[in-house]
Design brief:
Blueprint: H1 2-20, H2 49-54, H3 67-83, E1 87-91, H4 99-111, E2 118-123, H5 130-133, H6 142-146, H7 152-155, E3 157-159, E4 163-166, H8 175-179, H9 182-195, E5 199-204, H10 212-216, E6 222-228, H11 234-247, E7 249-259, E8 265-271
Parallel strand pairs: 1-5, 1-6, 2-4, 2-5, 6-7
Antiparallel strand pairs: 3-4, 7-8
The protein binds adenosine-5'-triphosphate and magnesium ion.
Keywords: ATP-binding, Kinase, Nucleotide-binding, Transferase
GO molecular function: kinase activity
Protein name: CpsD/CapB family tyrosine-protein kinase
């Protein structure tokens, strides 16, 4: 285990030092005048009341409905900040556990902190759904950025001043190969170098969809595992958590779709570290 932790730390350190040459000090004093490409030049998505309701988007402003996401935000951000980490993957054992819903709300909640620049990148290259949740069909897909066919600045969108979103509208041709490719690694490094986000969140496919995540996780600092209370078995959570822990640091497990006595559904979060 110690060897594994050392190997993960070394891989992370190598990625960081490669980036730090042109990304020396992060200035967190306001998002507008910071170095890097101009976030405000990206087209903005409007979230209509209908999109907000259908997409279960509840973290736009503080209050009761945002509280679970705000708690997840604070715990996740605290752990990542302590370690100097910027890249978080969100995955689950199987489909429909709520990864995309949680990734979007977590990103929105983080971006309510105006001095943070947050990116949410759709890395579900098999059955992307973030664009449906946001009711927006961009002209190109984020996988084309990873393939080097489209510039990030032509593809990305924003919500407000400090949340940038990259969507897929179509499935990539070879999702597993693309996810694990050197081209993807270079594209993500280039995005981080030229746009200088503080945090990059990756909405992944479920782990049972293929081996996409195996080498991809070398590109991130840590991961959250989302499980669905009534459909993910404890054995499955255990197997997936162990598998993830071989590949990156697991920040915690989010147990989503918990049914409470008043019949409402929400989630619980178990943090590590
Ligand atoms: N806490 C919740 N309570 C009730 N329904 C939820 C909750 N979280 C998400 N959902 C619903 O569950 C469905 C699946 O959610 P979502 O698309 O976020 O899951 P996913 O894990 O990203 O799915 P996929 O594996 O297909 O990518 C959606 O209809 C979403 O609105
Ligand atoms: Mg999803």
């Amino acid at each position: 285990m110690e060897k594994l932790e050392a190997a993960l730390a070394k891989a992370r350190e190598m990625r960081r030092s490669a980036l730090s040459a042109s990304h020396p000090v992060r200035d967190r004093t306001g998002v507008r005048d910071r170095p890097g490409n101009d976030w405000l030049a990206l087209p903005e998505i409007t979230l209509t009341p209908d999109i907000i309701t259908r997409g279960r988007i509840s973290a736009l402003s503080g209050g009761r409905d945002a509280t679970p996401y705000d708690l997840l935000r604070s715990r996740t951000y605290r752990l990542m900040k302590e370690k100097g980490w910027s890249r978080l993957a969100i995955t689950s054992p199987g489909t429909a556990c709520g990864k995309t819903t949680i990734a979007l709300n977590l990103a929105i909640s983080l971006a309510r902190q105006r001095d943070l620049r947050v990116m949410l990148l759709d890395l579900d290259l098999r059955r992307p759904s973030l664009h449906k949740m946001l009711g927006h069909v961009p002209e190109s897909s984020f996988h084309e950025v990873l393939e080097g066919r489209v510039a990030f600045g032509e593809q990305a969108l924003r919500i407000g001043a400090n949340l940038v979103i990259a969507l897929n509208t179509s499935k990539a041709q070879n999702p597993a190969e693309l996810m694990q490719s050197a081209a993807t690694r270079r594209a993500l490094d280039e995005i981080e170098r030229s746009w200088q986000p503080d945090l990059m969140l990756f909405d992944l496919a479920p782990m049972d969809a293929g081996d996409d995540y195996v080498n991809f996780l070398g590109n991130v600092d840590c991961a959250l595992l989302v499980a669905a209370a009534e459909s993910t078995t404890l054995a499955n959570i255990d197997i997936c958590e162990k598998e993830l822990a071989q590949l990156t640091d697991v920040l915690g497990i989010v147990l989503n779709k918990c049914r409470y006595s008043d019949d409402s559904v929400g989630y619980n979060y178990e943090a590590y570290g």
